[in-house]
UniProtKB/TrEMBL annotation:
Residue ranges annotated for the Glycosyl transferase domain, each copy included: 42-227
Listed GO MF terms: glycosyltransferase activity
Protein name as catalogued: UDP-glucose--polyglycerol phosphate alpha-glucosyltransferase
Domain of life per record: Bacteria
């Protein structure tokens, strides 16, 4: 190391010491008393995966930390899962939640079965507490056993007719208990009926399917639940899930927050009629857009559609950057709140002293395309040329495992890159690593980076949305490199492997970043957000009641010198008119973006239709249709919106109006634009 480099290191050490002292002084100030609102909390996702990832970790930690403040919660899952009870026992055994404060519930296990009254019994082929304890005649050609490759336990027993067509299939869980029976069509070989079973013989639900020869899979006809109050039928899974949610809503008048963690579950909650005592909300765990920020991801469409309909009471963001991007795209909403992640330990609580292996580079990620593990592997073909003893240890499992093994072999990296599988002890791995790396395509906020810095392990990360550059400050606690620049990634890995003093500085600096995500800060964010949510809802409900008898209608439209003028008619009288701001707002029909708005004065509104600002908004969003609403709000942006209908005599021609070339009346009689391309 030359003199200039030594001077730079010394200056950086002094600067960092000063920053930590300032931070410590600031943290010594008394924290305000934290009090989470007294409500029932329901955290919702689809299923608990065997080796669950960041979203489930975040949900469990939220439930655990709420429990430490004597706030009970429910972790709701919808999907059919024969291993649910075993997974819950494992979560509790690892002390991820306190079972006295958090109830992990599944629709089948905790709603359908306990509230059922079976009218039919199934006679299994072999009645036993554990099917694996039964001695079978394996020479019988009409029966086939399917076993788990690792444990050799029976998973399924298939029964065949004499013509070798399958008759039925019995399915067993890892405890050897029968849980489902499927019957197969002789004509198509597809499932036409499923029986859901508990206690060996009791049928609590049936699924009936329409036998379709031309389709690869039969279509669900109906679901039949043998409920205690009588048989109930449902046309689809959505109706059944909403039955459970409705049951929860009406079991008491106490306030309830339904917080959806998984975007796939949004429609089940937000399309359900909401009681006045219920609050609907969502937390965003991942990127909301496609390749361009104006293109909304399809799985986010339901959420932002319901935000526009004002069915959502709160949206919680993990990073300020994503919240800012959403506001730019969809307009200001006072239901948007920042609630960053935390971990259940701070760097001050890391007391176990492990020596970092100077050659170990760590990656903690599921083996999926989104995590882009292949770039990390490819970087090591350059790393080992400079540091032959370097090792990349990758912990995680997933569908890309086979492909990644092939890549390691093809690049001759078998002695330097290792797929280690899932680990139950991530802290130990981070504490014994020189650094960790993250090469994701996108994240909501990477928990693996948080786990790294809380264990004083420097991070080299791609600069992706969201959270990477927030958690890793370039040249402070790691390096932030341009996304997909594999050679640049390799160079920074080499630099940190070779430079001991730089590693030491980065490791010490991790502590400062970790403190920003302390548990006390986490509580404060949630307390602030939840109380504000209650306040906003109360004000929104007031405006809703006030504006319920008020209706607007477009009664005239004209255009002169490229200025579009609209005349409105209002039915009813607005109380405290001076405190209510009326606006005409145009939203993109496809991505729900707020394109532009204009104040309504004396029931008139006009704007230059060809203005550069409007053109830019339409081009940026690749807008095809603009839907117009009247927005009524106060100065604090407590608002409601209603679609703008058109008078019967207006805009009745086919296609767009000749007045401006864009205006037209929708099938439902509302005002919209069709944008010419």
């Amino acid at each position: 190391m030359d003199n200039d480099e030594r001077l730079r290191v010394l200056i950086q050490k002094w600067f960092n010491k000063h920053r930590r002292k300032t931070l410590k002084n600031n943290q010594s100030q008394p924290q305000p008393h934290l009090q989470i609102p007294d409500m029932e909390y329901y955290f919702i996702t689809g299923k608990i995966k065997e080796n669950y990832g960041g979203m489930t970790k975040s949900l469990l930690l939220r439930a655990k930390l709420f429990g430490l403040k004597n706030i009970s919660s429910h972790f709701l899952t919808f999907s059919y899962d024969p291993e649910f009870s075993r997974k819950v026992k494992g979560i509790i055994a690892k002390q991820k939640v306190n079972p006295k404060m958090t109830k992990i519930q599944n629709m089948y296990v905790d709603f359908l079965i306990p509230n059922s009254k079976p009218e039919e019994q199934y006679q299994p082929s072999h009645l036993a507490d554990n099917i694996n304890e039964v001695v079978f005649d394996h020479e019988d050609p009409s029966i086939r056993f399917i076993r788990d490759e690792q444990t050799n336990q029976i998973e399924m027993i298939e029964f065949f007719h004499q013509n070798q067509h399958m008759e039925k299939r019995e399915e067993y869980n890892t405890q050897g208990q029968l849980h489902k029976v499927s019957y197969f069509s002789q004509e198509t070989g597809k499932v036409y009926q499923e029986l859901f079973i508990y206690q060996h013989t009791h049928i609590y639900m049936k699924k009936e399917y329409v036998d379709l020869e031309e389709e690869s899979k039969n279509k669900l006809k109906e679901m039949i639940w043998y409920a205690q109050e009588g048989i109930k039928t449902f046309k689809n899974e959505k109706a059944l899930r909403q039955e459970w949610l409705m049951n929860i809503q009406y079991k008491s008048d106490r306030k309830k927050l339904f917080l959806v963690d998984s975007r796939k579950q949004d429609k089940y909650v937000f399309q359900l009629k909401k009681r006045s005592s219920s609050y609907y909300s969502a937390i965003i765990h991942s990127k909301h857009y496609e390749t361009e920020k104006t293109a909304l991801r399809s799985d986010y469409n339901e959420l932002f559609s319901q935000i526009r309909k004002q069915k959502v009471d709160a949206v919680f963001f993990i990073t300020e950057e994503q919240k800012t991007d959403v506001v730019k795209q969809f307009g200001h909403q006072n239901i948007f709140f920042l609630t960053p992640h935390t971990l259940d330990r701070s760097s001050h609580q890391v007391q176990d002293h492990y020596m970092a292996d100077p050659h170990k580079v760590l990656m903690m990620a599921r083996l999926t395309k989104i995590k882009n593990v292949i770039d990390a592997i490819r970087s090591f073909q350059f790393v080992i040329k400079e540091v032959p003893s370097a090792r990349l240890e990758i912990f995680g499992s997933g569908p890309q495992e086979k492909q990644l093994k092939q890549e390691i072999k093809q690049l001759n990296l078998e002695k330097n890159v290792f797929l280690k599988g899932f680990t139950q002890h991530p802290d130990v791995e981070f504490r014994t690593a020189r650094m960790s790396i993250s090469t994701s395509v996108f994240e909501g906020c990477p928990l693996s980076i948080m786990e790294s810095i809380v264990n004083n392990c420097p991070v080299i990360t791609y600069n992706y949305d969201y959270g990477a550059s927030t958690l890793v400050k370039n040249d402070f606690n790691g390096f932030v490199v341009e996304q997909y620049e594999v050679k640049q990634l390799a160079n920074k890995i080499i630099e940190l492997l070779k430079n001991d003093e730089q590693y030491q500085i980065f490791s010490e600096n991790c502590q400062e970043i970790a403190e920003r995500y302390s548990i006390s800060n986490y509580y404060q964010y949630w307390v602030t957000a939840l109380h504000k949510m209650l306040e906003v809802r109360e004000k929104r409900d007031h405006i809703q009641r006030m504006m319920k008898p008020i209706h607007f209608k477009l009664i005239d439209i004209s255009s002169k010198h490229h200025v579009l003028s609209l005349d409105l008619q209002m039915e009813g009288v607005i109380e405290n008119r001076k405190k209510v701001i009326l606006e005409l707002v145009g939203y993109d029909r496809d991505n729900h973006a707020e394109l532009f708005s204009k104040n309504v004065e004396d029931l008139k509104v006009s704007f230059p239709i060809g203005h550069a600002f409007i053109k830019a908004a339409l081009q940026r969003n690749k807008t095809k249709y603009v839907d117009f609403y009247i927005r009524m709000r106060d100065e604090e942006f407590n608002e409601i919106t209603q679609r703008l209908p058109i008078a019967e005599h207006l805009l009745n021609e086919k296609g767009v109006s000749k007045i401006d070339g864009v205006s037209y009346k929708t099938i439902k009689g509302n005002y919209s634009w069709k944008v010419n391309k």
